[in-house]
């Protein structure tokens, strides 16, 4: 059974990855997104991307950034 975007978002939150709930709505959100890390109270960006459906790009596809991270995290 495939996981829903909500289930994947919840898994990401458990791993310390914050994904805005707004992304899980019915409308595609088009735009630019970024990944940021916080280390010793400093914020660093390490990836900037663009997409016509940000939620799907992060969570929905088998090549989604967060999906791949979670999959590798679970396997290790």
Beta strands, count: 2
Give, in spatial order, the strands making up the sheet with the most strands.
1-2
Radius of gyration (Å): 13 Å
How would you sum up the global shape? globular
- The sequence of SSEs as H and E is HEEHH
SS class: alpha+beta
Strand proportion, as a percent range, falls in 25-35%
Helix content range: 25-40%
- For the termini, the CA-CA separation is 22 Å
Low-pLDDT runs of 5+ residues are: none
Number of helices: 3
Instruction: Round the mean pLDDT to the nearest integer and report it.
Output: 83
User: What can be said about the biggest beta sheet?
Assistant: 2 strands, antiparallel
Structural domain tally: 1
Oligomer: single chain
Index terms:
76 residues; globular; alpha+beta; two-stranded antiparallel ribbon; 37% helix; 2 strands
How would you sum up this structure, described in words?
This protein is an alpha+beta fold. It has one domain (5-75). The chain has helices at residues 5-14, 54-60, 65-75, and strands at residues 31-39, 42-51. It has a two-stranded antiparallel sheet. The longest helix is centred in the C-terminal third of the chain and has 11 residues, at 65-75. The two termini are 22 Å apart. The model has no long low-confidence stretch (mean pLDDT 83).
Short description:
The protein has about 80 residues and is of the alpha+beta class.
Write the layout of secondary structure elements.
Blueprint: H1 5-14, E1 31-39, E2 42-51, H2 54-60, H3 65-75
Antiparallel strand pairs: 1-2
């Amino acid at each position: 059974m495939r996981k829903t975007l909500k289930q994947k978002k919840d898994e990401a939150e458990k791993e310390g990855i914050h994904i805005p709930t707004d992304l899980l709505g019915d409308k595609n959100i088009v735009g630019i997104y970024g990944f940021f890390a916080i280390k010793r109270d400093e914020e660093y960006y390490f990836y900037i991307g663009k997409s016509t459906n940000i939620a799907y790009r992060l969570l929905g596809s088998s090549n989604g950034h967060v999906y791949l991270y979670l999959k590798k995290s679970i396997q290790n």
